[in-house]
Structures are given as C-alpha cells and as structure tokens.
Amino acid sequence: MDAFLISTGIVALAEIGDKTQLLAFMLAAKFRKPAPIIFGILVATLLNHGMAGALGTWIPHLLDAAILRWVLGIGFIVMAIWILIPDKLDEGDAKFVSLGVFGTTVVAFFLAEMGDKTQIATVALAAQYQSFTAVVLGTTVGMLLANAPAVLLGNKFANSLPISWIHRVVAAIFAIMGLVVLLGLDSNLGL
Prior knowledge:
Elements lengths: L1 H14 L3 H13 L2 H29 L2 H18 L17 H14 L3 H13 L2 H22 L1 H5 L3 H20 L3 H4 L2
Helix pairs in contact: 1-6, 1-7, 2-5, 2-7, 3-5, 3-6, 3-7, 4-6, 4-9, 6-7
C-alpha cells in the first residue's frame, strides 16, 4: 500500500505545472469534451507508465544491490533538481487532431510522457518498491488527480495554484527519498 500511496502523491504533485498538464489544458480548450480526454489520459498513462514500471522492476535484477542503491539515490536527487525546472508545452504534442478527441489525447499524452519527469519517477519508484502493479496504478491515479481537474476546470484552476511552492515540496520529497536510499535507511522506514 505504501508503494501505491507514495507513487500517487509524488506523481500528482509533480504533475502540477508539467507539460502534460499544460497539454490537458490545451486539449480541454480545443475540444471541450472532458470525458474522452480524461479517458485518453488514463489509457495513455497506463501504457506509458506500464512500460516504465516494467523497466523499473527489471533493473534491480541487472544491478548489484549496492550499485542499485547509488543509482536510485542519485536518481531521486536528480529528480528533485529536475522538478524545479519549469516545463513548456511543445506545439507538436497535440498535432494529431485527425484521430478524434480520444485518439488525439492518447497519442499526444503517450508521446509527451516519453522521457518526462513522471515517467522517469515511475521507473525509479518501481525499482525502489519492486511492485509493478502498485506503482503503475499509483502513478496513473496521480496523473488523473492532477490532470482531470485541469480538463474539467481549465485555466482558472491552474492560475490559482502555487505551482512553484508545489514543485519545491515535490523536490524536497525526492531529495529526502534520495538521501534515505543513499544512507540505507529505506529498509528501516519501509520504503
């Protein structure tokens, strides 16, 4: 349950102000059909984070435990730094309009998530917890918690959030997780 809850919380907070959330705003403004957009986000995230979770659960089988500890610890600290860098939406992320609302959302979200912070976080969380299902479901719920309101409420909601503070909190969580893993405290804390 820890893997699910931590994955949900981290990704929900990390997604605020992320380029895929900006994409959700853009799709909502363009199509004004929230149901197929939200369902498209769900499908794209399950596919994308499913691949990331599989990679994350496979990595520990390749690396010695001591090396994995360093890779994960440093990876979480790098994520802490990366989360502080604001995202910008690429115009190419929503160019698939001929696929309809649902198809456009699936393709655009899947591609926008490739190499994105939340995808990399999914890999790291799956490697840390060795729980594919809990991490992928958690990160997917986190994506929906951040993006469904973006689709439903639009820019009014986004402008009222203290995005820079939210990013700082998420960065602090990633940094703490990195230090805990590097210091070997993660097994003592149940992480």
